[in-house]
TrEMBL record, chains A, B:
Database matches in InterPro entries: DNA_clamp_sf, DNA_polIII_beta, DNA_polIII_beta_C, DNA_polIII_beta_cen, DNA_polIII_beta_N
Span of domain DNA polymerase III beta sliding clamp C-terminal: 255-376
Record lineage: Bacteria, Bacillati, Bacillota, Bacilli, Bacillales
Assigned protein family: Belongs to the beta sliding clamp family.
Protein name listed in UniProt: Beta sliding clamp
Coiled-coil regions listed in the entry: none
Domain DNA polymerase III beta sliding clamp central span(s) in chain numbering: 137-252
GO MF, any single term: DNA binding
GO aspect biological process, one term: DNA strand elongation involved in DNA replication
UniProt keyword terms in alphabetical order: Cytoplasm, DNA replication, DNA-binding, DNA-directed DNA polymerase, Nucleotidyltransferase, Transferase
Quaternary structure and partners: Forms a ring-shaped head-to-tail homodimer around DNA.
Organism listed in the record: Collibacillus ludicampi
Length: 378, 378
């Protein structure tokens, strides 16, 4: 294998696939990036066996030569060294050549590195994800949907299912839901899908989605999503992302949303966030991060007390209060997490009672729904 | 104690003194900031018993009222909570009032915090540093002198003296020197001092100087430096910084500098840094971070080898080479640390031999001198 490649294209490809490299592996080849060159260009692959990322640097882009292929072939290079070397080489073009015993020469300007590589045959093949269960979505929208749900997944491995985000699709409406059983985040969006395509119980690991979120470009290019039995494939331009799915039956969350409300408040999102954040300065000292909410027609008193530190009282004036007076307590972190992913200036919070889940949403919309369970007050 | 104070002035004062607060203390009062109010304004103090910082917020600045004093008094507030609360309060004016049992009310806008304080009488008094051993220096110059030396202090407590920077003054020339016995950094500057003032063996802990470096403003205001037997005091505008000194006799470093040279190279500082940094990508894998330098009249070959990773060769073209050919090895980190604090575009490196210390300096200047000891080659 021998190529000359534009440094920026090489670096960008490394940064793409590197998200799938794990440092915690006992299989040496997995700490590497696989490079394979044919006359069309350079393909790079990395996997931690949970996710896999493959990206392609074409020989030509817009008539410009990106990769000059002198000899086809393949190699696995240690990801950390390879990426740091390319990052620190300030030259426009890099030469890569595999010599005897997988020793690979990386040359740029007056620098020459000889890196010990590994046999590309030892690198695991990424799964073949095929089938007709496929739909398309704008990259930036999918990225946003991930951001608005993945934070609510559980980090506890006791119920592995809750560490994932469940995806479903019906009548062209895509839904992502995550819950750790204390709070729930749901996001819906209409997508381009065959009319008869129905998906349910597709549980994608939260960790995979965090990586995918970093990989998805912030533009409206369409990405294809292919769902197979135990794998999901997201196809971007020149880059493909694979993740295994979580086995099992995700709980039915549709009935958790209350339909009638006793109290509702309309608030400025940022102002409520700031008030709860200040209250949580004191609240987080006790482990549960408990903040109390006392809703009256004129105002909301947000309070928190810690025996060791002191007490805080925030007087918050909502835009509108409807319904009964209410006193309840909740974990400040859950509300702050939920408020953070709303891009709307105003949100509506609907309460059913002191011990029933309450809903945060944008007035007049159901695209984003956040559910939080109050904490029993002593 | 009761005051109304401008939030930005309060926050800035907290951030100043907070550098002296330690979280690792068994003495509760030391995790706090002492506030004392008289009709002139608010004085804040913090100390970890190694360093102490005191700052003063005057009642008036340029005829503007900064602190409105309603009642004099004093209190100690927990530093972490106090600073976070003020940071998160977006109101222009803050009210501070000490009530019964040291309970302190902090009000801003519609927020009210009640923080449990401590008796100010329990707070240690900062030392009285007095005497006529005093000189003045421009704040930004002293900050630069610290930056250019403190990195070379030892972090090993086996020889406590080497964890400090030694200050000396003679004939108006101030000198700071630090060494960990593998490399040495020296910086000199003429300062405003009484003609007959001579200082020697004033050993300031490196940790103290790191904090002081962060505190010194980046402008040319004169700061006064007062040296007492076991304390040093740095007086800035409205802020005073105290540090204890390290006991003992600092080794005489003046004779370490070779006076004759066999080889010298003139190089672009940034280019040499980049070449050594790339070599160190491979070098750091072996614990000693060893890089080899082969100097010939035309070029320098910088190489490093790691059995597990591979090899790197940098071909470096210096601006000028004088004297004999030379082969030597050194710790890449030491050279990179030294090169990083030179603001000059070109530097001169003077070698005496493969096993003698070599000097990095700015051509024609002796203000900054960096000494590095080579490593024996196998």
């Amino acid at each position: 294998m021998k190529i000359f490649i534009q440094r920026n294209a090489l670096l960008s490809a490394i940064q793409h696939v590197q998200k799938a490299v794990t440092s915690k592996t006992t299989i040496p080849v997995l700490s590497g990036i696989k490079l394979s060159v044919d006359r069309n260009g350079l393909r790079m692959t990395a996997t931690d066996l949970e996710i896999g990322i493959e990206t392609f640097v074409p020989a030509y882009m817009d008539d410009e030569e990106i990769v000059k292929v002198e000899e086809e072939g393949s190699i696995v290079l240690p990801a950390r060294y390879f990426s740091e070397i390319i990052r620190k080489l300030p030259y426009q073009q890099i030469e890569l050549e595999v010599k005897e015993n997988y020793l690979t020469t990386i040359c740029g300007g007056t620098s020459e590195f000889n890196l010990l590589g590994l046999d590309a045959e030892e690198f695991p093949r990424l799964p073949q994800v095929m089938g007709d269960r496929i739909f398309s979505i704008s990259s930036d929208v999918f990225k946003e949907m991930i951001r608005q749900t993945v934070f609510a997944t559980s980090t506890e491995e006791i119920r592995p299912i809750l560490t994932g985000v469940v995806l479903s699709l019906k009548d062209g409406l895509l839904r992502l839901v995550a819950t750790d059983s204390h709070r729930l985040a749901q996001r819906e969006e209409t997508v381009e899908a065959p009319a008869d395509l129905t998906l349910s119980n597709v549980i994608i690991p939260g960790k995979s989605l965090n990586e995918l979120g970093r990989l998805l470009p912030d533009d409206d290019q369409l990405v294809d999503i292919v769902v197979a039995n135990n794998q999901i494939l997201i196809k971007m331009e020149n880059t493909q992302f694979y993740s295994r799915l979580i086995d099992g039956q995700y709980p039915d969350t549709s009935r958790l949303f209350p339909t009638t409300f006793k109290t509702s408040i309309l608030v400025n999102t940022k102002e409520l966030y700031n008030a709860i954040e200040r209250a949580s300065l004191i609240a987080r000292e006790n482990n549960n991060n408990i903040v109390r909410f006392m809703i009256t027609p004129e105002q909301i008193k947000i309070t928190s007390t810690s025996a060791d530190v002191g007490k805080v009282t925030e007087t918050f004036i909502p835009k509108e209060v409807k319904g009964e007076e209410l006193l309840l307590a909740f974990n400040a972190k859950y509300i702050m997490d939920a408020l953070r992913v709303f891009d709307a200036e105003e949100i509506l919070v609907e309460f059913t009672g002191s011990m029933s889940p309450f809903i945060l949403k944008i007035p007049g919309e159901t695209k984003i729904m956040q559910l939080v369970l109050p904490i029993r007050m002593n």
